[in-house]
Amino acid sequence: MSVCDVAVIGAGPYGLSAAAHLRTIRGLDVHVFGDPMSFWSGNMPVGMFLRSNWTATQIACPNGDLTLEAFQADRQQSFGLPVPIEQFIQYGLWYQCRAVPDLDRRYIARVEHSANGFKLTTQDGETFNSRRVVVAGGIGSFARRPIEFRELPPELATHTSEHADFADFLGKEVLVVGSGQSGLESAALLHEAGAQVQVIGRSRQIHWLQGWASTTLHHRLGKGVRRLLYAPTDVGPAGLSQLLARPHLVRRLPRSLQDKLRKRAVRPAGARWLVDRLRDVPIALGCEVVSAVAAGDRIRVTLTDGRKLTVDHILLGTGFKIDISKYDFVAPSLMERISRVNGFPLLNDGMETSVPGLHILGAPGVYSFGPLLQFVSGTHFASRSLLRSVLSERKSA
Ligand SMILES: Cc1cc2nc3c(=O)[nH]c(=O)nc-3n(C[C@H](O)[C@H](O)[C@H](O)COP(=O)(O)OP(=O)(O)OC[C@H]3O[C@@H](n4cnc5c(N)ncnc54)[C@H](O)[C@@H]3O)c2cc1C
């Protein structure tokens, strides 16, 4: 059995950034597992743009040298805002080559307790012993599939995260359920791929981010005022953005206020570059699916506005519901020992769970630290918190 001090599971922005920070500790043996940036390349559509701004799209690194600017200079590439997903994936892979060149690309099939820490088993059966484990497994396991669609086979209904492109939908009639960013962006891409698309959304209104009115207002505010109102982390509206950029403060607010902040900060909204692209796509708001029944190779759908449709496919832009019990690589006996609320782990200041030595980074940290943790810009806070925790344990050992 191989042995290491820290095993990081997942090689997306959080796992890579955590590893880069931990490797600044001399003598610490850090082993990182996972297919780099695979959620971005396999579960988000080609042609997508990142909604986060330039600063918020930087993956935190300890020396400040693995930036988007350094990537552009190294690759002699030029791109601006909004950042195309293809460029962000390349940036993540470039970051990995520099910070974690010895990445172990295997998937971890099992993590369980062992006598002196944790035992990890890779997909091909090799075992590792690690004193500490950092889970940075992302949201891929948490795709939300509402009950009325669960019986439909994948040929008829899929979640947006099951597609890396929409070329197969040419000429198909598709109903997109959900009017948040991923539903709307998928609808635009489906339309451009030659599908006949319509969108339905539960909310009565689409919140367009930085639409004409707010862009004009931003312009008038001037740089100084904008900086006061908006933190570089780019999470949440004016004013709240500054608070949400300080997770240690958010954590100390009354629970009910934290929950309200979380809802307000990440309410479903569409980016402004989608407005024109969706001009010819019908969107029905305040509308839900009552029933969806397979009829041969199509689906018969009844909507709350009384309409009955028959379509080839339903695409669920219904987001993600965090529930770490869906991390199937964590042994049930270990999962049982993690204190949780509504599927979220309770984390201490070092992003450590109630199981000593077991840390969880990324979106599951939202309950303890607020919505920053579900975005790339949260890597700065998460990696530093983790690093501090590991360093202080080594000092006291
Ligand atoms: C459509 C969409 C658009 C988004 N746009 C933005 C945006 O513009 N800006 C932004 O900041 N955020 C955006 N996000 C949120 C984004 O998902 C997160 O910011 C980011 O991916 C978090 O990084 P992560 O490392 O936690 O997760 P991920 O990037 O998902 O990385 C986790 C990795 O862990 C791997 N893994 C899981 N289990 C194991 C295992 N057992 N063994 C080995 N590896 C494992 C996964 O395969 C995955 O590659 C978007 C999300 C979606 C769905």
Structure description:
The chain is an alpha/beta fold and 397 residues long. The protein folds into three domains: 2-142 and 320-396, FAD/NAD(P)-binding domain (3-Layer(bba) Sandwich); 147-207 and 269-316, FAD/NAD(P)-binding domain (3-Layer(bba) Sandwich), CATH 3.50.50.60; 208-265, no CATH class. The chain is 29% helix and 21% strand. The chain has twelve helices and 18 strands. Strands 1, 2, 3, 4, 5 and 18 form a six-stranded mixed beta sheet that branches. The protein has a five-stranded parallel beta sheet with strand order 6-15-7-8-11, covered by helices on one side. Strands 12-13-14 form a three-stranded antiparallel beta sheet, with no helix packed on it. A hairpin with a 2-residue loop joins β3 (108-114) and β4. α1 runs parallel beside α4 (85-99) and α1 packs parallel to α12. The longest helix is centred in the middle third of the chain and has 18 residues, at 212-229. It is globular. 39% of the residues are buried. The mean pLDDT is 95. Flavin-adenine dinucleotide is lined by residues 9-15, 33-35, 38-40, 44, 50-52, 107-108, 136-140, 182, 329, 362, 375-377.
β-strand amount:
15-25%
Number of domains: 3
Structural class: alpha/beta
CATH architecture of the largest domain: 3-Layer(bba) Sandwich
Rg over CA atoms:
22 Å
Q: Give the CATH level 1 class of the largest domain.
A: Alpha Beta
The rough form would be described as globular
Q: Characterize the quaternary organization of these chains.
A: single chain
- What percent of residues adopt helix (DSSP H or I)? 25-40%
